[in-house]
Amino acid sequence: MTTASHGLKIEMIAPFIEGTKDTFSSVASMQVRRRDVYLKRDHAMFGEISAVIGLSGSTAGTCAVSMPTRLAVRVVRAMLMVPDDETISARDVRDGVGEIVNMVAGRAKAILSPTQYKFDLTLPTIITGTSHEFYRGKGAPCMVVLFDAVPGGESFALDISVAKIG
Fold this sequence. Notes:
By secondary structure, this protein is of the alpha+beta class. It has helices spanning 10-28, 69-80, 90-112; strands spanning 31-39, 49-56, 59-67, 120-121, 125-128, 143-150, 155-164. Strands 1, 2, 3, 4, 5, 6 and 7 form a seven-stranded antiparallel beta sheet that branches. A hairpin with a 2-residue loop joins strand 2 (49-56) and strand 3 (59-67).
């Protein structure tokens, strides 16, 4: 089992990255490329809209997808097959980003189910606004994986904070 210096096991992070790539490809016909990975040192979220889902069980923590509003609208339009000339509501955008994090975490859960890293999912929580923050529990490091969406090159972040309990 490979462990980075911050205590997170790589085997716990990789399924969330795979889940992100699979989700964006299948529901938005959008390819995403991992650009950077780093240990988060503050509570600031990446964009103006974030969806956070809790993980509980023998593995606990949070998974969050955070992106600029413009990208969120583009992704949800593709998910719902709404043409560019039609209006999409702010509620649809929030619900869509919540469904994205649900699918990302659900895919990771499926990949990890045959391992010791099992967890259940909570309902997603949506946070919006410029410069919003999300406070995680102490003692659980958080990795940020930055992605670029293709086409368009817009960036978004996947925040993963997980720990094996017991």
